[in-house]
Amino acid sequence: MSLQPLTPVNCASLIQPGCSLLQLDGEVLLFGQKGWPKRSCPTGIFGVRRKQGKLKLRAISFSNDSCYIPPLRCPAVARLDPHDGFPESYLIHGGLYLLTLDSRGCNRKVTLRCQEKELAGDVPGARYGHTLSMVRSRGKTACVLFGGRCYRPAGERTTECWNSVVDCPPQVFLLDLEFGCCSAHTLSALSDGQSFHVALAREDSVYFLGGHSTSSDSRPPRLFRLRVDLLQGSPALSCEALATGWASTSAIVIRTGPSHRYIILGGYQQDSQKRMECSTAVLDDDGIRIEAREPPAWTADISHSRTWFGGSTGEGGALIGVPSEGKSTQQDAHRFYQVTFQSEASGDRPVEGEDGTQGCSQGSTDMEESPPLEDSEELYFGREPHELDDSSDDGGEGDTYNEEDQEDETQAGYWVPCCAGCRVDPHTWEPLYSTELHRPAMIFCSRGGGDAGDGHWVHALCMELTEPLLLKLSCGNAKYFCLDHGGLPVCQEVTPPRKVLPVKRSPMKTTGLQSQKKKMNPSLKMSPAKKGFLRRLFQ
Asked: Which of 33, 348, 363, 512 has its CB surrounded by the most CB atoms within 10 Å?
């Protein structure tokens, strides 16, 4: 195993706690960032490149028939291996989205396809910190969703606990992807809700390890085995608690090969106590075996930090981020490390070397079946593979994300504190007005705004505006003053109407009989000398 530090190149502020790492066709994808979509990357999904100790991100595009996927934090993600002619894909719950590889350009540029699945029946509500697993039984496939946290129901909220979260009910949801049907099941063995646990699946069984309970604020050692029998008509579910418990939360699960052998890395034993140990979980016909294994040689930054986060980068690899000590800027807030273990397929070789390059293959060489080439892709014909790799990582600065090109969101944006008592928190905000969807409603104050005094934006929630008044101010032309600048006046100052310039009317051209008369009787303009000459000539 090895532990290698990585230096992010103009992308450190994007990799934050709560993000997810996916692997599709050898590509590592970063998903779940706050503040997206943006013009530089409308999808909010980035390709992760690790080469020569540097960490770079590359914007990933969607196909034309794809749908929009919101930037979900701590979502439930399940990997679907290729089966029955279906390609490798990922299921992401927050809604339910299916992410697959659409095409790959000659310069290794990846295009994804995102499709939203319609669900009916006992549809699970919005939550985070839950798990999504795939089970197979009797030749059929289904998804198992369990755990998570959600905001307190509207009927139970008070001023003190308005934005507090609670454990979701300990129900197991079974999702049929073919027909879009959902069913909820309550099992006696699962009496308490849990979140940020680990879920490992093999055939018809799912194992739930660890987790945190908000009701008791504890991480009890737990290990459950859930069996799903997909009978015709109505499935049968059973759950049992195993004797060997496991206590941890937010751990990273690393797959080491095609067999059901996993490495469980990181996590927390208590709120501020990290789990520095490393374990190996093996699933077989007899059940599950959890064995301790030697952890990597942690650096001082990792050992002394109170928090850490990360995800799996493929078979035998993981990306870990820890907060930087004494760093106040957002670009230098975290330090990143690449952890590499030995995999089953690689033998004595590490899974990913120092360069961390991923192999790729071209699926079809028939030009009639391939999509139209982009201008940047036509330049790569006739180049050697090593030149293609160098151009994708080092020379392709046009596709590499650079956070310096983005607007400074610390100075302007929806999530900036609008006043001294601002109540909008990007982590706990929920829509309040009917006009809100993904961002809080704001209104412009005509006073303040720095030395220029040309106004500033404030949140409608912080100004305690009712929805009818907010709609009225948004549609009208009246000036508004926030609570720090006098509040809403009784007699509102009305913006002077715009000056309307008079329309210059040009004379209409004459048509019809009038124009014909003018042509028949033209008027001749002659000087008196000419008139006298013509008079004497005809006399």
From this structure: 33
407 conformational bin, left if phi > 0, alpha if psi -120 to 50, beta if neither: beta
> Comparing 280 with 103, which gets the higher pLDDT?
280
Rounded Cα distance, 257 and 143, in Å: 22
Which residue carries 């006992």 as its tokens? 122
Give tens-digit pLDDT for 112-125. 999 999 999 999 98
Residues 264 and 251: beta-carbon distance below 8 Å: yes
The stretch 63-89 carries a mean pLDDT of 85
Pairing of strands 317-323, 334-340: antiparallel
Tell me which residue has tokens 């099941």.
Answer: 185
Q: How far apart are CA 174 and CA 229, in angstroms?
A: 11
Cβ within 8 Å of residue 473, ≥6 positions away: 443, 465, 480
Distance between start and end Cα atoms, the chain: 125
pLDDT tier for residue 403 given thresholds of 50, 70 and 90? low
DSSP 64-123: TT-------SS-EEEEE--BTTBPPEEEEETTEEEEEEEEE-TT--EEEEEEEPP-EES-
31, 22 contact by CB (below 8 A): yes
pTM above 0.85, yes or no: no
**Residue entry with tokens 């000459």:** 533
Q: Name the amino acid, one letter, at 117.
A: K
Model confidence over 20-36: pLDDT tens digits?
A: 999 988 889 998 766 55
pLDDT over 50 (residue 379)? no
439-451 b/e (C-beta count within 10 Å ≥ 16 → b): ebbbbebbebeee
